[in-house]
Amino acid sequence: MGYVLSAVARVLEQPTAWGAVWEMALLAGPLWAAALIGLLLGWAWRPRWAAGLVATADGSAAAPAPAQAPFATLDFWKAQLPARLRAPLGYAGTAVQQREEDKAAAQGSSEMANEELAVGKEDLVNLWRLVEGRDGGPAWIKMMEKSLPTMTYQAWRRDAQTGPPQYQSSTIFENATPEEVRDFFGDDEFRMSNKWDDMLIYHKTLEECQTTGTMKVHWVRKFPFFCSDREYIIGRRIWKLGGAYYCVTKGIPCSSIPRRNKPRRVDLYYSSWCIRAVESKRGNGGLTACEILLFHHEDMGIPYEIAKLGIRQGMWGCVKKIEPGLRAYQEARAAGEPASKSALMARINTKVGDNFVRSLESNSQESEIVEAEEKPARNNVARFLVLGGAVALACTLDQGLLTKALIFGVARKFVGQRKTL
């Protein structure tokens, strides 16, 4: 108690505001550091019954939580490391996961043949309506417009009545064909080796259909250090409609790969695009450019308002890496490098006739695009610090909607009180 009183006295004795702030930082810094370290260690060594309580609060009591590895094992400590440090040690941590995935891949062909395809006609209809602006959803709000010498990018966002924010983007590449861009986005091997998508740290094909080109793929994507990595089980299929390619990619269930605490699985995932030839922005009159219309949304387990802020700030930084990646891909193909297995699967497409489009045009609703720029966020440092601290704390806990809801509820209440002052 005496230490606290003496520290407060030192703060009050400072002749300037900056001096007082510095003394407060010296006082509060070690306390916050100790609290965060305590949370990390406490969560790492939590008893199994505590993990069960969190899983029950998260609404997933039906699926029993996987057994935690003893804290003294090497696999346990690998799982606690950030992705940047864990990657050199070899992803997956245990040989058990690799054996399970190999078993799932071996069973893939028979499952794909006997069960209904993971991506079907209804998904194509939904994507077509999104491309034509006839899905009947809310208006799109323009977020940004950027360009490079050989690439033009525009992005929009809208908030659905339920679920995460939805994003639409248009990317136009000069001197590229739809077939090149189709293979480029479907080539998971090149996506990792070239690192144009540096968030992807692991991929594996679980199932595939040589007739339709449908694939079931396991992805793990790297997230910032204060969040755990995210795991995706996605279904992917491409249709050819006229001269355009419609690729549907969405999250699908997979019982052959059990859920784990890390990486955290993302169930709600939708990332689909239309690839088509368009006229060049250079005005040469030819269809020498390629446009990719992307529609994307996912529930990453992060509060939607925080996710919107992070996506807006990091969107262009990720997008501008695609252009040099595409040019490197074109050079590799021109040099005669063989296509990867996933790129060959992307070339197996289901052709759709004109009668299919005419049947859709008679039963569609239009969605408008609002060209007005999105309103900028208020420059309120206090609110940003409160919400940012809540994000760091909630993502450190990493699991359990009940805990996160409590943290963000307190933070929002505090911010609301400041607005009324």
TrEMBL record:
Domain START per the UniProt entry, residue ranges: 99-331
Segments passing through the bilayer: 20-43
InterPro entries noted in UniProt: START-like_dom_sf, START_lipid-bd_dom, START_lipid_transfer
Entry protein name: START domain-containing protein
Subcellular location(s) per record: Nucleus
Keyword field: Membrane, Transmembrane, Transmembrane helix
SUPFAM superfamilies: Bet v1-like
MF terms (GO), sorted A to Z: lipid binding
The UniProt record lists the keyword Protein transport: no
Gene Ontology cellular-component annotations: cytoplasm; nucleus
